[in-house]
Amino acid sequence: MGEQDGVQGDDARGAGVLQRAFAVIRALSASQTEGSRVTAVARAVGLTQATVHRLLQSLIAEGVVEQDERSKRYRLSVDFF
C-alpha cells in the first residue's frame, strides 16, 4: 500500500461526512419553521444521535445551522440562505 491509498481513504471518509452533513441539512430544511431536535434529525437520516450532534456542532461552527437556546431546536441559519 502506497501513500496514494491513504489519500483515497481520506477522500472516501471525507465524502461520507459530507453526505451525512447534507442529509442533516435536508432534514432541517423539512422542519425549518419550528426547527428540529437531535432525536428527530437522527431518526430522519438514520444516524445515531451522537453522530448527528457532532455534525450539527460542526455546521453551527460554520454558521449554517443555529440552535434556539430556549427550545434547544436546530434550524438552518440565515447565513445558509
Protein model, in words:
The radius of gyration is 14 Å and the shape is globular. β1 (65-67) and β2 form a beta hairpin. A two-stranded antiparallel sheet has the order 1-2. It has helices at 3-30, 38-45, 49-61; strands at residues 65-67, 74-76. It is 60% helix and 7% strand. With 81 residues, it is mostly helical. It contains three helices and two strands; from the N terminus they run αααββ.
* Number of helical stretches of at least 4 residues: 3
Termini gap:
43 Å
Low-confidence stretches: 1-6
| Biggest pleated sheet | 2 strands, antiparallel
Give the overall form.
Answer: globular
Q: Sketch the topology as an H/E string, one letter per element.
A: HHHEE
Assembly state of the chains shown = single chain
Tell me the fraction of residues in β-strands, as a range: 5-15%
Radius of gyration: 14 Å
Helix/strand/pairing category: mainly alpha
Strand order of the largest sheet: 1-2
**Helix content range:** 55-70%
Q: Compute the number of strand runs.
A: 2
Mean pLDDT: 89
Condensed summary:
The protein is mainly alpha-helical. The chain has 3 helices and 2 strands, in the order αααββ. 60% of the residues lie in helices and 7% in strands.
